[in-house]
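Question:
Now give any protein.
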Amino acid sequence: MMKLISTALVCLLVTQSGVAENWPEFRGPTGQGISTATRVPTLWSATENIAWKQEVPGTGWSSPVIVDGRIYLTTAVEQADAGKISLRTLCLDAASGRVIWNVETIQPAAEDAKVMHQKNSLASPTAIVHGDRVYVHYGHMGTAALDLAGKVLWRQTEIKYNPTHGNGGSPAVVDDLLVFSCDGAENPFLVALDRASGQVRWRVPRQATKAQTFSFCTPLVIDVLGAKQIISPTSGFVSAYDPKDGREIWSVNYGEGFSVTPRPVFAHGLLYICTGYTRANVMAIDPKDARGDVTASHVRWQSNRSVPFTPSVLVVGDELYFVSDNGVATCLDARTGTQNWTERLGGAFSASPISAGGHIYFLSEEGVTTVVKPGKTYELVAKNDLGERALASPAPADGAMFLRTQSHLWRVAN
């Protein structure tokens, strides 16, 4: 009996270790890459400190999200015998890696499943778990809501646009809305769906005309003086929108920057955004009292050294951290933009860095995670190689780290 009780307690602790803090959307509970999880591992390899390794069917670069001991992923499975694509949602047990359910969410038309950029997939946007629903998004191919048992509650496949290089940006939840950008080859727009029904509540066109209109940015919802704003960077400018009707509140123009991908970050009363190709800047914008075009008045500082095109930035304490696509990590003073350090990590980067357990994690496309201590000087903790391509961002939990690679989902645990 004592052995049974001990075993039950161990199982309970293992299960609880994955659910003490949920990671419900792209970049976690605040959408900004910050976790309060503890005992997060810092050392691993493809064979060391691996609690489990689960093969994931199909292809996809959506990041794992974790809620109440369950992991949710999207993937695209090619049905060879039928010549069709099945866009699917998976639910796995965080403690064991067991697949709980695997549901076809949308089957796109063949012409919608187009050839895309080599770093993209048909299932790149990350799911959101909010309340008793899972929201999944596949860009121009459709959006859907499922319950936690895997039942599809609604599908929205009427929003059409012509993507460039496929889809990348994930949706954001604000009140009773699901908001995402549709920044394709022409006529870009931002759209809000009713979370209960999937019906379009509002749709607003992007106001600026640029040579390249496509971008892949995930919106961020912030609070400014007690009022919510949807921050959505796109080609050429970033705007804040009123959730009630999509009205533009303010904007900052940054020229012909396009293919904007990094999700914004909001800290110290400043909004940090990246401006995309061809030469990226990181800009710190003060949204307080901003109305209309505030390009000349509300940009507090900007920097153009080793700024990422793809990974999002990260604020920990008083410092801003980021890694360029070609592997140069940088730490700036978040309030002034003054550089504290820069270090070449090696490799290429698409995943966004995260902060967990008192460390910062940078995951390269080669599957190598560089772990560093936050601070004004560079301090390397470890380099951990899984030996498999990785573009999805990590998801931490108490006592564990979840990593999606080319073919697998891994639970790393001490």
In short: The longest helix spans residues 2-17. The longest strand covers residues 70-79. Confidence is low (pLDDT under 50) at residues 1-19.
